[in-house]
């Protein structure tokens, strides 16, 4: 009975975070190249609150729903979305969530500083995947080469301040919510 209850809780939490990530895709602040959305906040929170395994499952569920054709990504959905230069950020969300979760799991009761470290590690992972994929797709698929400086400017410098603010918000919420979730 207890094992079934735990599984049901895990399914509900993964589904909830997949839905939150999808909702976050539609809360946009337009910036050049890659839109600023709240997806990162919810992928970050999934790592902190659900841990590496369940957080990763939540993000991969979101990606699977989008690739299946439901328009939950920032610019729609469908299998062809893998040809979008920004698809690397979605891959990065999964990897970043896993990294964030792994770091926060090391500690029984992580401090704000540890949560920030986990968030920044996840953020750097997201940007690494996103920028590499963007450069590859631009240079080799679209035939619209992008240099290192424009790539760094448009895909990192312009977007990272907002995401750093989301790291602070996520760490603050995590510090409060992690103990609450453990008691459930």
Task: Please give the count of helices.
Answer: 6
- The CA-CA distance between the termini, in Å, is 15 Å
Main-sheet strand order equals: 1-2
Q: What is the alpha-carbon Rg in Å?
A: 16 Å
What's the mean pLDDT score? 91
> Percent of residues in helical segments?
over 70%
Biggest sheet details: 2 strands, antiparallel
C-alpha geometry:
globular
N-to-C series of helices and strands: HEEHHHHH
- Uncertain spans, ≥5 residues at pLDDT below 50? none
Portion in strands: under 5%
Give a written overview of the molecule.
There is one protein chain. This protein is mainly α. 74% of the residues lie in helices and 2% in strands. The chain contains six helices and two strands. It has a two-stranded antiparallel ribbon. The radius of gyration is 16 Å and the shape is globular. The model has no long low-confidence stretch (mean pLDDT 91).
Helices, strands, pairings?
Elements lengths: L1 H24 L2 E2 L6 E2 L1 H29 L19 H19 L6 H30 L6 H10 L2 H24 L1
Antiparallel strand pairs: 1-2
Helix pairs in contact: 1-2, 2-3, 2-6, 3-4, 4-5, 4-6
Quick structural summary:
The protein is an all-alpha fold and 184 residues long. It is built from six helices and two strands, in the order αββααααα.
